[in-house]
């Protein structure tokens, strides 16, 4: 949590770049929960989401040199890594296959207690759930599933301009909810 | 530029959530450097997303951290080691690896010094051995050369002895005509008519003088050759017949007629 921070963001980034184990441990302890909420909102499978979280921290460790504090906050940079990694997994062939399998055995999952998280209660989704339906769909497809506006325009048979305007309006509303 | 309208367009939120394309992204980043209110709008939304994510944090499985620390274990700098490795150790200071490194370096330097010393020592040894070898080689060549000379002399002497032992050899002693102890001997092979001279005792000649042997044939002197330095019997000219032999001292190179006043020895056959 920000108020419990022992290091400032600048100090933390500096120590990470010096390859200090303690700083990485601190980074994980302080940010893993928040980043896991980003990942879990996109990937319902808890074990898979945990794998993605591990991958995300490895990426943060390897790419910390490319983080530019002038462009934005450290968490924003890490959050985007988390979202992009999650969507990569979501779009991967192996995930699509396992999703099919899961759909076939959905009854079993539901009967025997699932490891899946109900994503509707997680992080940003909780906020998005409060939007009206045609805004919700656009944020679902673009933010949570990673489709481009052109793809969404094709999928929903809505003109590209309308997708853009409506998505922007949805985000303005989301901003007010998140505030 | 109407920054308020820009901020209200939703592009700020698209940018922070990673929904902008490359062109829009660079546009927002550029405007952030030019308009503090746009930068503030970006930071505000980022911060509220951050707070929201922290407020809704989901605790990940405990083994993720364990696996991560193991996976990145090799990449961490040792927390205890200072960024600059100190060159001097103290009792409670440097890590064992530094001590090992220092020990290895010291050992390497010591080995190098010892090796350099041995190189100098062995080079000295090599040099004196080589000098000795060269000296011995010279000495050996000298000995070989003088050995060759002695061998030749021995062969000549052996040959002379063999000739003297030949029964066909006629011996003509030539005695001093001046009543001195001068003596020379002719060995004349009666079959081949070869003439050999043995200088038993003749005085040393001056550098520009040389002894010459003459055969007296029917009262007339016939040149039998000048006498060069030789070992044992000196081979002279072939003389078919003679009644006597004589030796005179002539100018170097010999003379067509003998200088009778300078006759040293003479002997009749």
Notes on the protein architecture:
The complex is a heterodimer of chains A (179) and B (269). Chain A is built from 10 helices and no strands. Chain A has 179 residues and is mainly α. Chain A folds into 2 domains: 111 residues, RNA polymerase sigma factor, region 2, helix turn helix motif (Rna Polymerase Sigma Factor, Chain: A), CATH 1.10.1740.10; 60 residues, Arc Repressor Mutant, subunit A (Orthogonal Bundle), CATH 1.10.10. In chain A, helix 8 packs across helix 10 and helix 9 packs across helix 10. The longest helix of chain A is centred in the N-terminal third of the chain and has 22 residues. The radius of gyration of chain A is 18 Å and the shape is globular. Chain A starts with 8 loop residues before the first helix and ends with a helix. Chain B is α+β, with helices and mostly antiparallel strands and 269 residues long. Chain B has 3 domains: 53 residues, no CATH class; 86 residues; 100 residues. An 8-stranded antiparallel sheet of chain B has the order 5-4-7-8-1-2-3-6. In chain B, a hairpin with a 5-residue loop joins strand 2 and strand 3. The longest helix of chain B has 70 residues. The model of chain B has no long low-confidence stretch (mean pLDDT 86). Chains A and B meet through helix 2, helix 3, helix 4, helix 7 and helix 10 of A and helix 2, helix 4 and helix 5 of B.
């Amino acid at each position: 949590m920000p108020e419990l921070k022992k290091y400032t963001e600048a100090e933390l980034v500096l120590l990470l770049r010096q390859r200090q184990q303690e700083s990485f441990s601190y980074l994980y302890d302080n940010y893993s929960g928040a980043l896991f909420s980003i990942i879990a909102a996109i990937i319902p499978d808890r074990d898979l989401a945990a794998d993605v979280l591990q991958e995300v921290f490895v990426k943060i460790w390897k790419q910390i040199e490319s983080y530019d504090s002038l462009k934005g906050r450290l968490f924003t940079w890490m959050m985007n890594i988390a979202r992009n990694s999650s969507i990569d997994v979501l779009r991967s062939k192996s995930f699509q296959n396992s999703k099919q399998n899961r759909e076939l055995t959905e009854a079993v999952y539901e009967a025997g207690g699932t490891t899946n998280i109900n994503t509707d209660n997680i992080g940003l989704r909780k906020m998005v759930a409060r939007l009206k339906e045609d805004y919700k769909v656009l944020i679902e497809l673009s933010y949570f599933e990673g489709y481009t506006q052109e793809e969404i325009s094709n999928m929903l048979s809505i003109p590209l301009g309308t997708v853009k305007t409506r998505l922007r309006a949805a985000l303005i509303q989301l901003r007010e909810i998140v505030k | 530029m109407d920054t308020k309208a820009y901020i209200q367009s939703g592009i700020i939120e698209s940018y922070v959530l990673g929904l902008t394309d490359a062109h829009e992204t660079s546009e927002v980043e550029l405007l952030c450097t030019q308009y503090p209110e746009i930068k503030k709008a970006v930071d505000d939304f980022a911060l509220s997303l951050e707070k929201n994510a922290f407020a809704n944090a989901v605790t990940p499985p405990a083994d993720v951290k364990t696996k991560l620390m193991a996976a990145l274990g090799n990449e961490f700098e040792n927390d205890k080691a200072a960024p600059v490795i100190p060159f001097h150790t103290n009792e409670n200071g440097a890590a064992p690896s530094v001590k090992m490194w220092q020990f290895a370096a010291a050992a390497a330097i010591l080995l190098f010094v010892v090796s350099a010393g041995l190189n100098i020592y062995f080079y000295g040894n090599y040099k004196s051995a080589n000098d000795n070898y060269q000296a011995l080689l010279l000495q050996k060549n000298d000995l070989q050369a003088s050995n060759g000379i002695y061998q030749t002399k021995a062969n000549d002497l052996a040959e002379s002895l063999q000739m003297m032992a030949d029964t066909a050899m006629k011996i003509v002693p030539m005695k001093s005509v001046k009543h001195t102890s001068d003596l020379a001997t002719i060995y004349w092979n009666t079959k081949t008519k070869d003439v050999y001279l043995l200088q038993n005792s003749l005085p040393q000649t001056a550098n520009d003088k040389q002894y010459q042997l003459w055969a007296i044939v029917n009262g007339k002197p016939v040149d039998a050759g000048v006498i060069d330095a030789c070992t044992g019997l000196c081979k002279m000219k072939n003389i078919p017949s003679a009644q006597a032999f004589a030796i005179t001292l002539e100018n170097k190179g010999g003379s067509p007629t003998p200088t009778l006043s300078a006759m040293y020895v003479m002997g009749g056959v």
